[in-house]
Amino acid sequence: MNFKTITSSDEMWSRVRNYAESCSWKAGKSLANDMDNNVFEDWERVIVAFDNEKICGYCTVAKTDCIPNVCYTPYIGYMFVGEEYRGNRLSQNMIQYAMDYLKTVGFDKVHIVSDHENLYEKYGFHIIDRQIAPWGSEEKIYLQKL
């Protein structure tokens, strides 16, 4: 399994965008839209996991996430692992890759927004806040020091 941080100038950009748009998770369409509109600036990136040439999953590192009007940054977001690759610690490995990348660009902490129970805690994250998302559900904001 390999990982790569990509920007709109990368040859994989459109493949990852198409994969996100057609994946089983409804938020994939939102990531595809963000990629179409090239909302990623400065150090923000899409991270792709791939096996040979096959895309296995993705996530992002970004200044903001889905909860407006909070002062937290940066975030790991849009975490998705393809169904056939689940159960192999791919999300854990992508999180570690994202954290390593964020350290290289000068950050000492990272956040994740999620409504999952007992998922990110096992990767060393702890809840620092709870907020209502624009779609009405309560989301947890997690923190981990890098």
User: Helix coverage percent of residues?
Assistant: 10-25%
Principal-axes geometry comes out as globular
Mean pLDDT comes to 96
List the domain count as a whole number: 1
The proportion of residues in beta strands is 25-35%
Q: Please name the CATH architecture.
A: 3-Layer(aba) Sandwich
CATH topology category name: Aminopeptidase
N-to-C CA distance: 23 Å
- Ranges where pLDDT stays below 50 over 5 or more residues in a row are none
Q: How many strands in all?
A: 7
SSE order: EHHEEEHEEE
Provide the structure class.
alpha+beta
CATH C-level class = Alpha Beta
Biggest sheet overview? 4 strands, antiparallel
Topology:
Elements: E1 2-6, H1 13-22, H2 27-36, E2 45-51, E3 54-62, E4 75-81, H3 90-104, E5 109-114, E6 126-132, E7 138-145
Antiparallel strand pairs: 1-2, 2-3, 3-4, 5-7, 6-7
Helix pairs in contact: 1-2
General description of the model:
This protein is 24% helix and 34% strand. With 146 residues, it is an alpha+beta fold. It has a four-stranded antiparallel β-sheet with strand order 1-2-3-4, sandwiched between helices. A three-stranded antiparallel β-sheet has the order 5-7-6. The chain is globular and about 40 Å long. The model has no long low-confidence stretch (mean pLDDT 96).
Salient structural properties:
single chain, 146 residues, alpha+beta, Aminopeptidase, 34% strand, globular
Quick gist of this model?
This protein is an alpha+beta fold and 146 residues long. The chain is built from three helices and seven strands, in the order βααβββαβββ.
